[in-house]
Amino acid sequence: MDRQLAARLLCVSIGGFFALQGVWAFVAPRSWFDALATFEPFNEHFIHDIGTFQMGIGVAAVVSAFRVKAIVAGLAGLATFQVLHVVSHAIDRDSGGRPGFDIPSLSILAILTVIALVIVWRSPETEPGAE
Q1: Among residues 15, 55, 71, 96, which is most buried (max CB within 10 A)?
Q2: Who's near 78: CB < 8 A, 6+ residues apart?
Q3: What is the DSSP annotation of 49-98?
């Protein structure tokens, strides 16, 4: 197996592991906490946020296996985190924080990150194989 293929398989495997951990934390925060983070206090919103971080890291790793430009992988991970972080704040809006400020401001950051991702993703310099 050549090095490039080995690196890509590792990126997909490790990224997939992080993404699945993130989905678990986001979808079933109590189960994730009880299995992996058995230190009190349990905070559902915090576990949701951990899930969004892990999904972003996982997506960045998987995308890096197919898109070698760092900006594409980085923005893909950041956009995943940003969008899911807004969802986390919307779901947990009654848990504290400042929903009237947090959700709109986080939404603006998410939108800007997705726009940046679309711009670089569609750029000919970031096509697979373009170095």
Answers
A1: 55
A2: 56, 60, 113, 117
A3: HHHHHHHHHHHHHHHHHH---HHHHHHHHHHHHHHHHHHHHHHTGGGSS-
